[in-house]
Design brief:
The structure is a single chain. By secondary structure, the chain is of the alpha+beta class. It has 2 domains: about 150 residues, no CATH class; about 130 residues, no CATH class. About 20% of the residues lie in helices and about 40% in strands. The protein is elongated, with a radius of gyration of 28 Å.
């Protein structure tokens, strides 16, 4: 082979190496580039452990128990909201990338995937570890309406760019997995009567074809009543009262709201307890979500339920 041909061959090989390296680092267009970082059969998942480092450290564990999931923060274990768990499982079932952002451990902190800053996610099937990875920084581009985050698989140096919206599901707080519903009615449920038992009186509201009546005789502004009821159709609690001793609840009984009507198989009941030693003295508990106890001050959910109904009763 002549000197000129050898030189051309060397240049050609060098260009091929540079071309291949560029495609590897960019992650685009390489037929050998594996875009699937995480792929999990969610039916096989029995537990997920999440350690969040920012803004403050918190550890969350989700465990499958029969048809339900239990979420724990180390101090409290409660039934998890199914929709929140499904969102998490959907997010980890298939995580893809189209770009390698870094290949050296020295760059981990720049992308928030180091041990000090990243969110550590470990997925189990019984006692077997299926996947373990760290999710890092999140950024959103308002011009393109796209979000990006970064991920590192434990035991590997590479940092990958992933869909930022998908990563958001992995950074839920403990409260984000809990059921915040205090009241929730289906679309076909129609309230036709409700009672409000207060410390000094009981207000009875009913409607049988005509206007709403108070205590069976005093006509009310039906629009005001309907507006009140509409606020209750999907009413969340604001703050969980996990420190309230429910075994002593009867001692603090203060008020009760009962709603009945068409397509409502069992009455909705909201009990209100009052403990003046608390910063938010009103404790709320409903038949719709028996696992949760919420607290409120006079400007919160308590007002929507009980102070507003007193206005209807002109008290």
């Amino acid at each position: 082979m002549g000197k000129t041909n050898k030189t051309l061959l060397i240049v050609f090989v060098a260009l091929l190496v540079l071309y291949g390296l560029n495609r590897l680092l960019s992650g685009r267009g390489d037929s050998n580039f594996n875009s699937e970082l995480i792929k999990i059969d969610t039916a096989a998942v029995s537990a997920v452990n999440i350690i969040i480092k920012q803004p403050e450290e918190a550890e969350i564990t989700l465990k499958r128990e029969g048809a339900d999931w239990i979420v724990s923060n180390g101090q409290l274990s409660v039934k998890a909201q199914s929709a929140a768990v499904e969102e998490l499982l959907s997010a980890i079932s298939l995580i893809k990338t189209n770009q390698i952002a870094a290949t050296q451990a020295g760059s981990w902190a720049d992308y928030g995937v180091d041990e000090e800053h990243g969110t550590q996610v470990t997925v189990y099937s019984n006692d077997k570890e299926l996947e373990s990875f760290v999710v890092g920084k999140f950024s959103f581009n308002p011009q393109t309406q796209t979000a990006i985050s970064f991920l590192r698989i434990n035991g590997e140096n590479e940092v990958y760019a992933i869909d930022g919206m998908q990563a958001m599901s992995l950074n839920k707080s403990f409260e984000g997995y809990r059921n915040l519903e205090l009241l929730k009615m289906k679309r076909d449920m129609v309230v036709t009567s409700f009672n409000c038992e207060l410390p000094d009186t009981t207000l009875r509201f009913s409607k049988t074809g005509g206007p709403w009546l108070l205590n069976g005789k005093t006509p009310l502004d039906s629009m005001d009543v309907e507006n009140y009821l509409n606020t209750l159709r999907n009413l969340p609690g604001a703050t969980f009262a996990d420190d309230f001793d429910e075994t002593r609840a009867e001692k603090f009984q203060y008020a009760r709201l009962t709603l009945e009507g068409d397509n409502i198989p069992a009455p909705f009941v909201v009990d209100c307890y009052r403990d003046t030693s608390r910063q938010r003295p009103f404790i709320l508990h409903s038949s719709h979500n028996r696992d949760a106890w919420f607290d409120s001050d006079t400007s919160g959910v308590y007002r929507q339920l009980f102070l507003n109904v007193k206005k209807l009763g002109r008290l």
